[in-house]
Structures are given as structure tokens and as C-alpha cells.
Design brief:
Blueprint (H helix, E strand, L loop, with lengths): L1 H24 E2 L4 E2 L2 H27 L1
Antiparallel strand pairs: 1-2
């Protein structure tokens, strides 16, 4: 039980940091990222973190 809380916390921190980083790198005037290749990697990790969080929250609500 405690292990799931730690894993959840780690993925929350990763999702927040990656989301903020993606937001800061996006240029709203030109609608492009400063470093597109790095933005793809950030987005994939961000999406994975959010997927794990949603998956864990659905498991917890079923019980």
C-alpha cells in the first residue's frame, strides 16, 4: 500500500515538471518548440506519467 503511494507521488512530480518544461519551451508567437526533438521526448515521458496516474486512479476507485 505504501509502495503505491510512493510510485504515485513520483509520477505526479514527473508529470508536473515535464508539463511546465513543455509549456516554457513552446513559443506561442510562432507555435513551435525551441528544441523540437527534446520536446518529443518530454511529451512522451509526460504522456506515460499521466497514463500511469490515470491507470492507478482507476484501480483505486474500483476497490
Amino acid at each position: 500500500m505504501e509502495n503505491k503511494k510512493v510510485v504515485n507521488f513520483i509520477f505526479w512530480i514527473c508529470a508536473i515538471i515535464l508539463g511546465v518544461t513543455l509549456f516554457k519551451q513552446f513559443d506561442f508567437e510562432t507555435f513551435k518548440f525551441e528544441k523540437p526533438a527534446l520536446a518529443v521526448i518530454y511529451f512522451l515521458c509526460f504522456a506515460f506519467s499521466v497514463f500511469i496516474l490515470v491507470k492507478n486512479s482507476k484501480k483505486g476507485s474500483e476497490k
